[in-house]
Amino acid sequence: MSLSLAIGRTTLRGYLRRARGAGFVWPLSDKLSDTDLKQLLFPRTAGDVRGSFPQPDWSYVHGELRRKGVTLSLLWEEYRGVHPDGYGYSRYCELYTRREGKLSPVMPCRAVDCRTLDIGAPLAFGKSAFTNSMILS
To answer: How far is CA 8 from CA 12, 19, 26, 37, 107, in A?
Structure first.
């Protein structure tokens, strides 16, 4: 059956499980539209509704980011402290940059792990004694 439908066996098993759960019997009623069939097989749950995550106060976030030493990571941790089931870090950052209408600066990192680089921390530059080039310390 999965070959004739050009879908995987696991996908087919999932559809059959959903059909049994919805109480379908063969043959299906002619009155059942594709939309009705989809709604019966894939009922919407409260978690499926768009916007079900609590929204951060973006004006507060924007204002706090102007303060020295405050990072988006710190504000996300604060947000997750209040809303443990809220947005993950990457989605939180994506929503913030989308709201601000700008892309975040991208810095290619080869020598350090970018995930541990805290852009809000004070940085120091110096010259390498070996290559006479600028280094970040």
So the answer is: 6, 17, 22, 20, 41
For residues 76 and 89, is the Cβ–Cβ distance under 8 A? yes
Would you say the C-alpha torsion 106, 111, 113, 118 has a positive or negative sign? Answer: negative
Cα(77)–Cα(90) distance, rounded to whole angstroms? 12
Q: Is the pLDDT of residue 80 over 70?
A: yes
Distance CA 32, CA 26 (A): 12
Rg (CA), the chain: 25
Q: Which of 3-7, 30-34, 82-86, 127-131 has the highest mean pLDDT?
A: 82-86
3-state secondary structure labels for all residues of the chain? CHHHHCCCHHHHHHHHHHHHHHCCCCCCCCCCCHHHHHHHHCCCCHHHCCCCCCCCCHHHHHHHHCCCCCCHHHHHHHHHHHCCCCCCHHHHHHHHHHHHCCCCCCCCCCCCCHHHCCCCCCCCEEECCCCCCEEEC
Which tens digits make up the pLDDT trace of 5-19? 888 888 888 888 888
